[in-house]
Write a structure and sequence with these properties.
Layout lengths: L1 E5 L4 H12 L3 E6 L8 H9 L5 E3 L5 H10 L4 E4 L6 H6 L1 H21 L4 E7 L22 H19 L4 E7 L1 E3 L18 H9 L6 E4 L11 E2 L1 E3 H17 L2 E7 L5 E2 H12 L5 E4 L8 E2 L4 H7 L7 H17 L4
Parallel strand pairs: 1-2, 1-4, 2-3, 4-5, 5-6, 6-11, 7-10, 8-13, 9-14
Antiparallel strand pairs: 9-12
Helix pairs in contact: 1-2, 1-8, 3-5, 5-6, 7-9, 7-11, 9-11
Bound molecules: nicotinamide-adenine-dinucleotide and uridine-5'-diphosphate-4-deoxy-4-fluoro-alpha-D-galactose.
Amino acid sequence: MNILLTGGTGYIGSHTAAILLELGHQVILLDNLSNSNSNVLAKLKTITGYQIPFVHSDVRDTQTLQDVLKSHDIKAVIHFAGLKAVGESTEQPITYYSNNIQGTISLLQAMQATSIKTLVFSSSATVYGEPHYLPLDEKHPTHATNPYGRSKLHIEEILSDVAQSDPEWRIISLRYFNPVGAHPSGLIGENPQGIPNNLMPYIAQVASRQRSQLNVFGNDYPTPDGTGIRDYIHIMDLASGHAAALDYLKMQSGYIAINLGTGQGYSVLEMVKAYEHACGHEIPYSIAPRRSGDIAICYANPALAYDLLNWQASYTLDAMCASTWKFQQMLHQNNTI
Ligand code: NAD
Ligand code: UFG
């Protein structure tokens, strides 16, 4: 099947492209390169043997999208394109709503105009807000606390309305927990520009001595070691969840939101320990104040993904850390930092 990946040169998109190609699909990547680099295409060629078609465009350019959907005979779209930094979204809400919501509406218009009605959307566990109970299942009430999260929630609502309006639509929102790790080749992974917002890329940069120490945001949470607990999921597991979602949509129309997580939470200090094991040396850290907006504990109930998609996470925490470390070392070797 020919599949368009918006935001396809990004972290999750590039790994999903690799998995889909392995499964025999054709993929076309579209990205405005605002948060990724086109050199990922050469890396994907090394990994998969394919020169993947790439369109350098913004998803808000509806006409280009329409042309791409038609000319590549696309049968389904995975919509990764969007901005994702929570803090930045509070400073630039208009930019976030424009990229994320306007971008999605533009995509939906192009899909409707070309009668391509199968869509997988990158949502986030952030739509649950402060947990009322754990683990978080899809019935948990939704509540967003920042413009990024609100953009995801609004998009989910829009997608649900669209699917209700026309029974031909087949749409899944995948609510990702915390994606980490890298492709086993070490060629592609997460390499944020500037100071990393997220824990795993920050630890990786401390491990490779680009940064002197990790700041652990709070050790007074109601958790066994006082630090925040999250459901970290290996990027390869997350990527294969998209293939499972597309398979499901072959049989099912309508709209549904499904968690992609492992069901297992780890604390910040447990992550530090696991990474030390992977890289073979100590990760210096100090305790800093809590980060505003953070919650204590967040982990998934992944049962629905298992029941409907026949998917479950299989990579261990050690594999997540080892692959991140391999990718980080290869970045250094290639002087691409
Ligand atoms: P990423 O930044 O690596 O990838 C997103 C890609 O979209 C980038 O390549 C960027 O250049 C592109 N893009 C952004 N706006 C665009 C636009 N208007 N037009 C075309 N391209 C555009 O991020 P990622 O981690 O791969 O995330 C992919 C999706 O998953 C995002 O929608 C994100 O919100 C969602 N998500 C990510 C996480 C996470 O922790 N990584 C968690 C939950 C949800
Ligand atoms: N943390 C630190 N130091 C750091 C970075 C993070 O101690 O330098 C802690 C945080 O306080 C939190 C944990 O590490 O307890 C994880 O933080 P991340 O920033 O890696 O991840 P979040 O759970 O805060 O958020 C991520 C994405 C969101 C997404 C959410 C759920 O950034 O976009 O996962 O999928 F919505």
